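Provenance and format

Records in this collection were gathered into a single text stream. Each protein contributes a sequence line and a token line. The two records reproduced below are adjacent in the stream.
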Amino acid sequence: MLKHIKSQQDWNEKSLSAKGFTLIELLVVIVILGILAAVVVFAVNGITDKGKTNACKTEQSVVKTAVEAYNAQEGGYPTSISQLTTGKKYLQDSPTWWDITGSTGDLQRINTDPSQNNGINTTDCPA
């Protein structure tokens, strides 16, 4: 019985002397994790913007090639995108970023999603 009481006293002393993390230490770790999360969010936003820019430039190149192919085959420039996507199908799908204006095959950037450029038409891809 004496041994049992002594071992219980040892356990109580160990539990009182055992240390955990203080509130300050936990707050410091939470702040550091918050800063790291913010850095990651801003880095990812930059990557998605570059992706949109590259997609726009690639689509511009594809549409220009389709316009020139149409001109070579038909003897004139298309006056609308629908001429490239129907019939002989110079384009598989309608472009997201570009449209044709006039009878010379000029390209004009369009916005199907106003949030991409505040609803303003422009001839450049998003930067």
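Adjacent record:
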Amino acid sequence: MKRNDYFMLATVFVGFLVFGFSENVKGPAIPLICLIA
């Protein structure tokens, strides 16, 4: 249960980072996702 909560938190955090990165660069953030994954 805790592991699932941490996974959800990490997913939201990564999504927020990717959204901010793509907003700043005005381009696709797929390469960033590939690098993180």
